[in-house]
Amino acid sequence: xxxxxxxxEIYVRSNDVIDLPALSLLLAKTPCGxxxxxxx
Length: 40
Known about the structure:
Layout: H1 2-15, H2 20-28
């Protein structure tokens, strides 16, 4: 979650406009998954 906040902050700083739908689409493209092969 910290990385999502960091990416969102960088996006807002680079565009000077807060466009929440565009921000959500950008963050949806961010790959994420479990740290290990198991789901425990």
